[in-house]
Specification:
The complex is a heterodimer. By secondary structure, chain A is an alpha/beta fold. Chain A has ten helices and ten strands. The longest helix of chain B has 27 residues. In chain B, β1 and β2 form a beta hairpin. Chain B is globular. Classes of the chains: A alpha/beta, B mainly alpha.
Chain lengths: ~250, ~325
């Protein structure tokens, strides 16, 4: 589905992504973990075209998308949501989604028909229902709760009918109960929408609870990859990141 | 579809009322006022496509208003083409100029965009002042607009020009209103609210920005044409930078979030202009105080304020 080969991105002297080679199989639910500054968000920015890599390649469904611009990458079926919920605050939830759907249908330059065009309204309600936002459809998005704003951000990405969905910390800034509600929604989406889903997450209970596979980044490099059990047992990961009970005892 | 017909019906009604008024109120002052209003309201509303709807604060939009007056006056004085042809040619000249200017400006953000648009206008102003042979320099293009009779209607006649200005304003506003109500209009709001998100939804931001820049320039030049017919020529003040400031004042006073805000603001601005200059020579001082009252008192334009008081959300959606 997505093959990344020798991907490198430097900011000044720091390699935020350093010679990363990773493969994401279709219909998997993959977590990316790593300490702060490990280059997780940069990695997403490279895939989605927000940043151009210095070297390496990104191949999506057999096509090299390394040098494509954002809009072209979106068209190929890669959607993303952001660490800080990103949406259109002056619009209602329904208008946000209608706008995203109009964009997805290539109507964003349409100067003849009134917005929203036929079918857009209905489709927006469908997308809202996928994430349980239907009751807030007429609420101004700026006035939504933090959790609902994160859901709206994901809903905007879903409006693009992506085959690959990148979620940058979907549970950021949430309390424990809210986190699990959010992650259950994410998991249900993954099951029902035929998605390949990659998410960045700091909460290890969530990561080991739902991910079918895990990639560990550290200082821009791939430290480990595998199933949750493999990662849990990986000595390099334990040393660099998870920590061991023994280590604490030694101190 | 229903809303388009409603808007058109309101437009026709407005023209009918305006056509009747001079029969009730004699004297030319009102007609003069409406013609100037038509010109400036087209200009201010076109600027609001950039400022209010797209979040692009141009300080040099007067370039296109002024270029509209000069191109139209020059085409009428120096070539033999008919008035409708000169009208269309003026729009084309402005569109081509806007593509060139826009291609440079839209890459820039916020204050840099504002300053470079202003610089572009000052550049155009200097060219017009210096190119005396073509433009008349400081003196402007005097000598009037010839061939004003179109389809048997003499636009040299004050009442006819008044009706013409009202019709052009209504048509211009209807088209611009339609533009902001299309999916393209929604793209403008998306870019204003969150440009990065818009680009990650597949919108090619620079294309939308350049298109709206060109469209707004074209409508500004229509305002310029009306002004050129009104003053029978073109003058450097009409392309100097304070004219851009007038449009910004009109937008701020009327309301960036309401489609008719700039039109209402233009009426306030011109009324102030007429009343205050009759009473005192401190026009700038009076205007400054009133703008401060809008900015610090209402914290929004008049029409946005009224819309919110009535429990609504301004159409442009700025809150």
């Amino acid at each position: 589905m997505l093959q990344i080969t020798n991907l490198t991105k430097r900011f000044g002297g720091v390699a935020a992504t350093n010679d990363v080679t990773l493969t994401f199989a279709a219909n998997t639910l993959t977590a990316i973990i790593g300490p702060n500054g490990a280059g997780k968000s940069t990695f997403f920015n490279l895939i989605s075209g927000a940043l151009k890599p210095d070297s390496g390649s990104i191949v999506f469904k057999g096509e090299d998308i390394t040098r494509l611009d954002r809009a072209a990458i979106v068209q190929r079926g890669i959607g993303r949501a952001f660490q800080v919920a990103s949406f259109f605050p002056s619009m209602t939830v329904a208008e946000n989604l209608q706008a995203a759907i109009a964009a997805h249908r290539g109507q964003w330059a349409d100067l003849t028909h009134r917005f929203p065009r036929q079918g857009v309204r209905e489709r927006a309600m469908e997308v809202a229902e996928m994430l349980g936002l239907q009751d807030s459809a007429d609420v101004l998005s700026a006035n939504l709760s933090h959790g609902d704003q994160k859901l709206l951000d994901i809903a905007l990405a879903l409006a693009l009918e992506p085959s690959l969905l990148l979620l940058d910390e979907p549970t950021a800034g949430m309390g424990p109960d809210e986190r699990w509600k959010m992650i259950e929604k994410v998991q249900r989406l993954w099951r029902t929408q035929n998605l390949t889903l990659v998410f960045i997450e700091h909460d290890m209970d969530i990561v080991f609870g739902i991910a079918s596979s895990i990639r560990v980044l550290c200082y821009g490099r791939v430290l480990a990859e595998g199933t949750p059990d493999e990662i849990r047992a990986n000595p390099a990961v334990i040393e660099a990141y998870l920590g061991t009970p023994d280590a604490e005892d030694d101190v | 579809m229903g809303r388009i017909f409603r808007d058109i019906a309101i437009g026709i009604l407005a023209i009918a009322v305006l056509a009747a008024v001079p029969h009730l109120i004699p004297g030319k002052a009102f007609q003069d006022f409406v013609i100037r209003c038509s010109s400036m309201a087209l200009f201010a509303t076109s600027l609001n496509l950039l400022v209010g709807y797209t979040g692009l604060s141009s300080f040099g939009h007067g370039l296109f208003f002024g270029l509209g007056t000069y191109s139209f006056a020059l085409l009428m004085q120096r070539t033999g083409i008919s008035l409708p042809m000169a009208f269309i040619a003026t729009l084309l000249i402005n569109a081509v100029t806007a593509v060139a200017v826009g291609a440079i400006c839209i890459r820039l953000r916020l204050i840099y965009f504002a300053f470079v648009t202003l610089a572009m206008q000052m550049l155009m102003h200097s060219i017009i002042i210096s190119w005396v042979g073509l433009t008349g320099g400081d003196q402007g293009l005097q000598g009037g607009i010839p061939r004003r009779v179109v389809a048997g209607i003499d636009l040299g006649n004050q009442y006819n020009l008044y009706i013409f200005a009202a019709v052009v304003l209504v048509i211009g506003l209807l088209i611009m209103r339609h533009i902001v109500n299309t999916s393209f209009g929604t793209s403008l709001r998306m870019i204003r609210d969150n440009e990065a998100r818009a680009s990650f939804l597949g919108i090619v931001v620079w294309r939308v920005k350049l298109t709206v820049f060109v469209l707004s320039a074209v409508f500004a030049s229509v305002g310029g044409i009306v002004m050129s017919l009104f003053v029978s020529g073109a003058y450097p003040e009409l392309i100097n930078w304070p004219i851009s400031g007038d449009a910004i004042f009109a937008i701020v006073m009327g309301g960036v979030g309401s489609f008719l805000g700039p039109t209402v603001g233009t009426m306030i601005l011109l009324l102030l202009n007429d009343v205050v200059t009759r009473q005192t020579e401190y026009y700038g001082l009076a205007l400054g105080i009133i703008i401060l009252a809008f900015a610090l008192g209402l914290r929004r334009g008049l029409l946005d304020f009224i819309t919110e008081r009535l429990g609504g959300r301004p159409a442009g959606g700025i809150s």
